[in-house]
Design goal:
Elements: E1 2-6, E2 9-13, E3 18-22, H1 29-33, E4 47-52, E5 68-72, H2 76-89, H3 94-103, E6 106-110, E7 115-116, E8 122-124, E9 132-133, E10 136-142, E11 158-165, E12 168-169, H4 170-178, E13 194-202, E14 213-218, E15 221-227, H5 235-245, E16 253-255, E17 275-280, E18 284-292
Parallel strand pairs: 5-16, 7-13, 8-18
Antiparallel strand pairs: 1-2, 1-13, 2-3, 3-4, 5-6, 9-12, 10-11, 10-16, 11-13, 14-15, 14-17, 17-18
Helix pairs in contact: 2-3
């Protein structure tokens, strides 16, 4: 199923151009995921209206998850980009940090206030405008809660996938990474810096091993293009590792990493009015403009 959270409630894709607005009590996918029956019952749920998706206001599929995690340096091409910056910021530790990244998943959390809709403008505060950057990332939505999840059973805990853009204030991130704490989540977790959407597509729509193509366009120019097959740590490994430290709950979101091609390594940062289009095969495209707030 391809599902949406909209201003009229939850909608299910019916044809290429139309969706059915469902006649159910819950108004958001968060509510459904946190219920006892999960998403399965939406397949046959009755509808109150059929319309074009363009006639609705589409929100983030999940609006307020209990936790949002982001995987760092999880595509081989991006690891090589990271190597360059680490050799400058942490020359004595660069190889150690790269080796650690390849061996063990790297993740960090951001607040749910960072989530914003798939077509909303991105509000950028004045302090974060210096080196604003994008990262196209496939996001996993957890369907069943758990702790200490094995890699063998990790897919059983996934409700589906959505698309995201891991927007970052690179100058703030760089200052933090150059320090002894090497902490940079605050540079990525600014309010509105994690657009999600446009849909949540359930696991049964995809074949395993997973091979989803993702792409980033800035003002129509392709900047990133990759497949999930290029990930350093696959999604089951990421889920299992995170769940060693944190109990995952239904509706939680995990951004699974960015491929190469981010603006930082090209010296091409985002400006006010720039249009960011992030696409995932089978899921759709989120399109957000940069707005200096």
């Amino acid at each position: 199923m391809k599902l949406y959270t909209t201003n009229l409630g939850i909608a299910r894709q019916e044809t290429l151009d139309t969706v059915a607005v469902l006649n159910i009590r819950e108004k958001t996918l968060d509510e459904v995921l946190q219920g006892s029956m999960g998403l399965d019952r939406l397949a046959n749920a009755p509808s109150i209206a059929s319309c074009k998706l363009s006639e609705l206001e589409v929100f983030s599929p999940v609006i307020c998850p209990s936790k949002v995690f982001c995987m760092g340096a999880n595509y081989h091409g991006h690891v090589e980009e990271m190597r360059q910056v680490l050799e400058t910021l942490q020359p004595d530790r660069a190889e150690e940090l790269i080796a650690g990244t390849l061996k063990t998943p790297v993740f960090f959390g951001v607040p749910s206030s960072a989530i914003i809709g798939p077509f909303a403008d991105i509000p950028v505060p004045e302090f974060a405008r210096g080196q604003l950057d994008y990262e196209a990332e496939l996001a996993v939505v957890i369907g069943e809660g758990g702790r200490n999840i094995s890699t063998e059973h990790a897919w059983d805990y996934v409700a589906g996938f959505t698309m995201s853009n891991d927007i970052s204030a690179r100058d703030i991130q760089g200052e933090a990474m150059a320090g002894p704490q090497f902490e940079f989540a605050h540079a990525k977790g600014i309010d509105g810096f994690k657009p999600l959407g446009p849909s949540l597509v359930t696991m049964d729509e995809f074949n395993l091993p997973l091979d989803i193509k993702i792409e980033a366009k800035i003002n129509g120019e392709v900047r990133q293009a990759a497949s999930t097959t290029e990930q350093v740590h696959d999604i089951p490994t990421c889920i299992s590792y995170i769940s060693r430290f944190h109990t995952l709950r239904a509706g939680d979101v995990i951004l699974t990493g960015s491929p190469a091609g981010v603006g930082y390594f090209q010296g091409r940062f985002l400006k006010e009015g720039d249009l960011m289009e992030m696409s995932a095969q089978g899921i759709g495209t989120i399109a957000n403009k940069v707005k200096f707030s």
